[in-house]
């Protein structure tokens, strides 16, 4: 009986205590559009002790919250990224049951919020009307990584073990920095982005549906790297250094300052790299319609080099109406390669020889841009004027010596030495005016005009060593020079609409192109002029399924003009059996792109999925063929590698990005996709075609332990790559790193190892053409240890402003890593 009495008493006391609690509810909304603010943080403290919060909670996906409090007086503090802090005082001493705060309005902040400890996490990826945005500043690994490292995690982007970048499985894209394209970055993206510290980056944007304001002849996708320009009056920055077991050294400096109306950001990076010997072997089998013959080649190549990158941007805001920006960039370097090779040919052409070649490739460029932006009384109404100059030299030279083995026969029986020097590059001037007018909260129009002038050229000096006269003499027969000019006039108009859950954007661009090509060779001297007009539409529509779910679809037609790396007729004949050169007669490539994208996020899970389809009827395609000739009574058979508008391809693909953070210790992600490609040659009577699946996957997991210690492991896998004539074998790579932060998270140390259990990376390719099959194998050092140190200084508070519209010349098609087919590339592991 006593036990029953005690139980009833406890139940009554519990009911009484519950009845005394008050349920406090409310909703956080934005002052600008009255939209809910999901996953905002709320701290609750007693009024008598406001500095000591006893409870923290987060709003749900609809911006709503609810919490039970006893009678008393409280202070509630609301925080949301990018919004001013809101504080509410509650007096619940005479309240019973429920208390509804209603809508709590938060306004956009002009300053960056101080760091706060919260459980809710801002999503790393968000979907917008025409792009995806990866929040680099919210990535915990950014403090010890390079921008290239971050790209591995961005949806739709993959970076393989050789640091080659792909967007949706393709190398045909452009890279911008702060909305401005740079040919010097596009020509050597891996090396440039290695020198940029990730902690200087705010966002990485993937523009999958370039609208009308982008050049009609642009590529199917754009990667825009937005640097972090947060700094109040004062300064902030970082300095870092690195070293690896390949004897590579690197250093970088990032600085941002702002004093009153004047702001500056700059970045300097310097790297020295050394690639140990890589081994190569290939077998070329010739058959009908050619005489049966087999050529076997083996060789080894080692490379050393250096690179310097400088970038500076200055802003001046005399008042709230006018804004001026100036930017200067310089990127330059070289890499030197030494190659030893042995060749043995049998059957129809029996000969053998050894060779030693030394080559130097100089790359780089400089750019200068000036922008002016005028704002009007209507929010969002802008008029922008811009000018940009860019120069991009791409010089190279080599010398080779060929020795005939005893009893062997070569094209030149007495042996042969040759040298070649190529001076190539171009200047580019661009003028542009843009106007944007948000008619009201739902409708927006934009228009603009643009003019581009390009002047590209290539000059080469070829010499050979005359054994009889013991002199170096000009080799007139190898002359192949080029002058190439372009004048592009364009205008565009666009309209966008956003209301509630629906958004749409349509545009139309018109371009007039005039170009002259002057090709000078030993056999001919010709000038070809072309003049053509294009109308290019684009459209995107999005629907917000919920506060955290968006679906988007889009179409755009893009035209890519071949750049100097594709047009340059300079013949790289370091290997006399396999020569490569550009094609000055290339036309622009037209491509149609369709895509559907779905994105959703929560406090723990971020998911983004894309299905895409694209086709082109005259794609610029790498092309290999054999030319047979007789010189000095000796039959020659040489494989030519160049480019031609012969690709008719269709590609359907998927891409999936998934990140999961089950708790504050673990963050994991996976990023990859699968494509099916069907490509055929448009050449008359050609039977060249290829089809099949290609894919890529990259994933990783980060463990964040107490005392600012992190362990990170990443890995990737690439399936067969499908090209018109070539299939590449699958390969994988992986890395592990330990990271430690010291001195209040200002000093970061990182120890990294790549491919710990694989000393070499083994890759192979098979190329098939009319009358031949070529199989190649590449064995390159893969295991590398590296150590990096980064120190940050200063405080980051407010933003240095930059104009919202600027010049974006994404129309020029670049070669993979800025090199021609068959030429050397910057090595990985540097």
UniProtKB/TrEMBL annotation:
Keywords: Cell outer membrane, Membrane, Receptor, Signal. It is found in: Cell outer membrane. Residues 1-19 form the signal peptide. Residues 134-222 form the TonB-dependent receptor plug domain. Pfam families: CarbopepD_reg_2, OMP_b-brl_3, Plug. Residues 375-791 form the Outer membrane protein beta-barrel domain. One of its GO terms (cellular component) is cell outer membrane. PANTHER family: PLUG DOMAIN-CONTAINING PROTEIN, TONB-DEPENDENT RECEPTOR-LIKE BETA-BARREL DOMAIN-CONTAINING PROTEIN. This is Putative TonB-dependent receptor exported protein.
